[in-house]
């Protein structure tokens, strides 16, 4: 009887670390440059307008992520070009020492679906995988596909 209890306890102890990897943003990482990863996230999105890919700089950081710039972070954005379509898929890679969970929470709190003049995004999501954060604002089907693509990249 004691051996069975010990075996069950050991089994639980071995499975606990695996649970952390299945949680959103927990222990997973994405490989590639910010530009490569953004292309994988946006490559097959059902967007019916022309898009621009823009590097995120200190000057435009708050426009895409709604918070102050983070030293050492890298970002890219895919947004509607010269259109009244509210669409932006923005990717942020944080430095290793950044608190990604807190950054995600800060973006979620500050996110503005009304940032476009006269229109607003139908769906707005902020997702995290390790030190990568995705901000998706567009139609529901586009945001859902972007999240699916982003989550599929995590290893």
Descriptive keywords:
alpha+beta, 5-stranded antiparallel beta sheet, 155 residues, disordered N terminus, 21% strand, 39% helix
Give the SSE map:
Blueprint (H helix, E strand, L loop, with lengths): L1 H21 L11 H9 L8 E5 L5 H5 L8 E7 L7 E6 L6 H11 L12 E7 L2 E7 L1 H14 L2
Helix pairs in contact: 2-5
Class by alpha and beta content: alpha+beta
Q: Which word captures the global form?
A: globular
Beta-strand fraction estimate: 15-25%
CA-atom Rg in angstroms: 18 Å
Distance between the termini: 39 Å
Reading the helices and strands in chain order gives HHEHEEHEEH
Oligomer class? single chain
- Average pLDDT reading: 84
Quick overview of this protein structure:
By secondary structure, the chain is of the alpha+beta class.
If you had to describe this structure to a student in words, what would you say it looks like?
39% of the residues lie in helices and 21% in strands. With 155 residues, it is of the alpha+beta class. α2 (34-42) packs across α5. The longest helix is centred in the N-terminal third of the chain and has 21 residues, at 2-22. The chain is globular, with a radius of gyration of 18 Å. The termini are far apart.
